Amino acid sequence: MKRLFSLLFSILISTAAFAQTEQEPTDSEKRLDAFTDAKRHELSLDVSAALAIPAFQPRYEYVLGRYSGMGVDLFIDLSGDDLDFSDLEQFSITPFYRQYFFSKEDFGAKGFYAEGFLKAYTFEDSYNDDIFIQNPPTEDTYFETALGVGIGWKWVSNSGFMIDVGFGLGRNLGFADVPDDWRPDVIFRGGVHFGWRF
After folding, report:
1. pLDDT at position 39
2. Domain residue limits at 133
3. Nearest to 144 by CA among 93, 95, 97
4. Is 48 inside a domain boundary?
5. How many domains does the chain have?
């Protein structure tokens, strides 16, 4: 009798274990699968810089999760000497970290965000040592770094098309030793990026 009871108990346990493996995945497991398979990479281009300066400013962002991402901006001035205000920046690289808010999806990383950034950039400055200003001014290229914060909003469609509008302010750290320093201590960061999440 004990053997029969043990055999029936073993069959019951085996059946229960088999039934558990055949069950539908739970909502939590489905969300985890969706999170693993979700699109994490974004490439975009700042159309405002391209139209206004012109400049080439691509951005890459890696989505870390539902509420965060990190990436880098690149800025290359294409205007030459045509515009005086473009001399503020010739080339820059800006790594950033973002925190997203109000994202209800398991893999959101869209909507309102706040970011911190570190911007390393070069700029040109012209100055004249001649007090009578008879000689042409000297033009030099300088390196500067700024630390700052920004806010913005990102829209992402189901197909992956995205629009990112943001702006921020940073403070120069004072690495550039410019003889005739006319630059402001605070720099502006911002733009309108169109791109794709994949």
Report:
1. 85
2. 41-197
3. 93
4. yes
5. 1
